[in-house]
Every structure is written in C-alpha cells, then in structure tokens.
Design goal:
Layout lengths: L1 H26 L3 H31 L2
Helix pairs in contact: 1-2
Keywords: Membrane, Transmembrane, Transmembrane helix
Amino acid sequence: MLGRVRSETWQVRAKNARVRAETWRVRAKTPRVRAKAAKHLGKLMATFFFMEVGIGIFEVTLP
C-alpha cells in the first residue's frame, strides 16, 4: 500500500515537472532564456532518470 501512495506522489511530481519543462520550452524563444531553459531541462531529465531508478528500487525492495 505504501508503495502505491509513494508512486502516485512521484507521478504527480513528474507531471508538474513536465508542465514546468513545457513552460521553459515556450519561454526559450529568446536566446538569453534558451541557455537557462537548457539548464532546467537538463536538471529535469536527471530528475526523471533518478525518479525511475528510485521507483525501480522501491518496487524491488517492497514485498
């Protein structure tokens, strides 16, 4: 049960991150913001990667 709640929280966070990434992509029209957006997207990609790994670990450890 705990695992399910936890993964739902992750899904919400992932959705929020996706929305944020979209916002940055829209803002990235100007060159100055583009560098900032690239940095943000890089962070988001890393976050997604670690979240996937984290969820995988939780699924393995939880019975």
